[in-house]
Amino acid sequence: MQKKWYRLDTAALIFPATARRDWCNVFRVSATLKEPVDTEVLQHAVDDLRHRFPSYFVTLRKGIFWYYLEESARRVLVQNDYAYPLTFMSSRELKQNCMRVLVYKNRIAVEFFHSLTDGHGGSVFLSNLVARYLELKHGLLIPRNELIKDLLQDPPGEELEDSFLKNAAEVASGRKEEASYRLHGIREQDGFKHLTTGIVETQALLDAVHRCGVSATAFLAAVMAESIIGIQNAERQRKRQRPVKITIPVDLRRLYGSKTLRNFSLVLNIGADPRYGDYSLEELCRTIYHQLRAFATPQNMAGMIAANVQPQELTILRLAPVSLKNLVMDGVYRRSGESGGSINISNITGLSLPAEMLPYIERMEFIIGPQRSYPNNCSVMSFGGKTYINMIRNIRESELERRFFSRLVELGIAVDIESNRR
Asked: Is 42 exposed, middle or buried (0-12, 13-18, 19+ CB in 10 A)?
């Protein structure tokens, strides 16, 4: 029987081309239950999701002209969580499965190679995995809705589509941006990633957000920008400084009504240039909030989509062997892929689980790894009245976390800190 295969979506093409020995774009979503996880039951739950979510049970294959995803003959086996989050996903592992399911005591975690999906798709998969686990473990009857799927149904085509292709403008927007300031430090040689989690009351965060009259994402980005500006001020004279911009992913499903579970987000680099003068936090909040509103429009994002889609349609690129495509895409990525931002803040919102599941779940989290060219990253998720702010880095210096969380405390937001620091 011939295996199913899937073309990489437009956003996914870059990840195999830019991966290297010490970096592979992987992210994690996790749910911590109020009881220890039964790994045998969880394995049954994983197996039960295969039919409904086929595009996640795949391997990465290298064709003559493009990479592609192929249905995996192997089961995705539940593993014990070990070492630290987001350990390197090697090409050998990707040839077996592009997804991990990990267990540590009460926690279920799923790690995805980014060519499969983005944070939204990953959170949908995790929600359905936990729902199926609770059904098998406790005999629950969990209602089906937009989030929790009927596992016996075939996946609709709209969930498997590349939504970039159908929403690109006719004219592409430009890619050129001035390079942003970058944090730096002594890199951990063994690949260890420091994870610091700040846990805040969601209502306290929202109170501060409302006082500033902006969104939660804009507020957190402003506090982050202020912290990074402070670090740059301590290092450089004003005339030698660079802009400080926060890379913020925009979920395009909301703009275009897409239901795809593959990648469908693009990033905006939003911030301020400290060479022009000092900024108060209120000024940073306003400028970041209004930049987001101005740029995250269907028309502007369609131009950005076109900038990614149109190169695929060039005959010379389509006919080039994959090894040559890799060199071209890696060069473009090094020059412009991450240069416009100082750090990423990715915030998963709008995840509403059925009431039947809530008594069994303690917390849910989202973690993205450091980017290839900058060492720190930040991801945010709220659940059960708490907001979990995960800051990860592959360098020893912890100055950014210290400044960022201390500033939240100064603003009246109490922060509980957890860390895997060794």
From this structure: buried
Say whether 390 sits in a helix, a strand or coil.
Answer: strand
Once rounded to an integer, what is the mean pLDDT over residues 375-391? 97
DSSP 40: H
* Number of CB atoms found within 10 A of residue 313's CB: 10
pLDDT of residue 3: 80
CA angle 298, 302, 304 (to 5 degrees): 125
Provide the H-helix boundaries in 84-118. Answer: 91-94
pLDDT of residue 84: 81
**What are the CA-CA distances from residue 180 to residues 132, 251, 271, 373 (Å)?**
44, 23, 10, 12
**Helices and strands per DSSP (H, E), number in the chain:** 14, 15
Q: Which domains does the chain have, with CATH numbers?
A: 5-148+156-165 (3.30.559.10), 194-419 (3.30.559.30)
User: pTM (2 decimals)?
Assistant: 0.95
290-306 per-residue burial string, b: 16 or more CB within 10 A, e: under 16 = ebbeeebeeebbbbbbb
178: DSSP letter? P
